[in-house]
Amino acid sequence: MRDMVFFAALLLYFAAMIVQIVSAALGRQKGCRAACALLSAGLALHTVYSVWRGIAAGRLPLANQFEFASGFAWAIAVLGLILHARLRQTWVLTASIPAAFLVMSYAAFQPMEIRDIMPALRSTWFALHIGSAIFSYAALAIAGGLGAYYLVRLSRGEREDSTAMRQADYMGYRMICLGFLLLTVVILSGAIWAEQAWSKWWSWDPKETWALITWIIYAIYLHQRLRMNWQGRRMALLSLAALVCVLFTFAGVNLLLPGLHSYA
Amino acid sequence: MKKIRAFLRSMTFGMLLLAAVIGFSFAGSMIPQQRPAMEYVSRYGATVGGLIIRLGLDDVFATPVFLLLMAALALNLTLCSVVRVRRLRGSGERLKERARAAQVIAAPGQAQRLDAFLRRRGFCAQAGEGVTVYSKCLFGAYGSFLTHLGLLAVLLAGALALYGGQITDQTVMPGQTLTLPDGTAIEVLSFRIEDETGRLDYASGLRMTDAQGQRSAEALVRVNEPMRFGRYKVYQQTYGTAGTMRLRNAATGGEDTVYLTEPAFLTADGQNGVFFAALYPGYIQDEDGSVTLITSTSGAYADPVYDLRVMAQGQTTPVLAFPGEELTLGDITYIPGEPVSYPGLRIKAIAPGMLGVLYASFVLLIAALTICFFMRPVCVAVRPEGYAIASPKPQLGLQLELEALIREEEQR
Ligand code: HEM
To answer: Residue A130 — φ and ψ, nearest 5°?
Structure first.
């Protein structure tokens, strides 16, 4: 029954994505409102599912690849809706709904059973480290989504100096600021936790190393934007390339590079 | 010389160094680190494996080039911060000046509306001749300087914490005491693999005493919960399970118990005796009576089985023995006992306060980034004919809000 709630939320995200993409392509405001409602309904079910799972597991439901991916998708939906409520721009939904759906689909392919967590994960740092990670990744995923949206519109002949394009570019930058700050929290809280669990605050474990690579790439993005005044297309491309790094840190490292973080 | 100095503190050099750190990190994550040389040869072949070892790519983060790179990054950050901190003094006033001098966006007769809006947004007004300058978050100009300072502090304190500490790994049987070179003693009072509910919970009961005889309270050391004592921090690192064997000598009446952590030959005369091969955590007995041994477990040993070889008069007989069973060879009786779990402790010696400094640098970096991104300095100069925005950071959000405000009024 619990898993049905998860798949219902996934279905709603899927429906929201289709409605949003079609409505955005046809320029239908009503359709975008329907997509927003579908996303909200999906998020409500997703929240119910996560709370339910957390109660059943007796812990924060963010302890393995499935739970983390589900939390990541949840955070994208939350941030997407907050951003949409503030800006009232439909392109926010066009960028965030597909991201939420894709990450949620990835979660659906992971083993879903609830398992007791390893002693290494029983720490007060767990909530801060993983909680900031899902929101950091979500902000960076939305920035990547905005970058993709920007490039698609550009390829369709939209002018770079139109308000919508400048705003999408700017919001991408702001999302990266938020994601970068939270990624710093993830890395540093992880360092404190590592010192308590493994005695060294930094071990060059593949997960740590890739988080650092990702962090540096976003640092380069911020510098290029601020000092070199890079904007628009170049920044959209860089935010997409950096998102590939985020996704590799999130999933690729677990699949390809075993290390101290292997239990995740 | 001037040009070299300018390059050393330039952002271009900084970005090149960061790109090089990415390169090293990529190599260090793709090539397994600190493995025996043979592993590289068997995995990558003699040529590539040999090259990896010769270039130091098997321990890339310890190579002099990488350490030099980190030192260059620290130097670059220091030089560029020193130059910029001088420019920061008076940056607020300069920003106001920039706003006053900037080209005005036409909004005739909107000064009052703009005033109300900007004050609502927390701007402070400074009225001047024909122009009012509204400013906000001027302190935020220090954000990127503080960020780089935080980063520098993390690099320096982090290097000291990583390389300034001394780490030793030791296994100790419960009931035994480990004495460190400076006379500090670590007494292992107990060890358990599972808690009362059967949940995995590697925990050692420890007590420490320093060379002067000062004793700590008894502490339960778990994964994530190390024990601090003086300059030491003791971690629950690994664990193992040892077999125990009671040896009774009928001729002398003597008795001894040995711990078996690896294969061992227990003999009085060097020829006859019992060879301990392995200890298994349990077994499964099939309907036909045959026994399958369980080879691994992450929990306690539920039904331990000793894999032994009895060696007598040149003959070797394999035997599976359970705790309590007696095997007698001549005068010696061998009695396998219940296995004992023991901890592998990691003992770290580090200067007191070192970690505090490192964590303070973490807090500084996070606070500085928050200032950088969420306290962006901005000034708006409002004149009767319009307004102008000045900020060292992108301010499209504010710009669009002001445009919308003016448009709304015009539409009315
Ligand atoms: C991983 C290393 C670094 C990080 C995380 C970092 C972080 C930052 C951040 C967050 C900002 C503000 C960006 C914004 O507000 O959008 C910034 C600005 C800046 N950074 Fe870095 N930085 C790093 C390395 C460097 C290096 C090596 C240099 C070399 C000189 C440098 C030079 C600058 C400059 C010149 C600015 C603009 C400052 C201003 O206009 O106030 N950064 N940096």
So the answer is: -80, -35
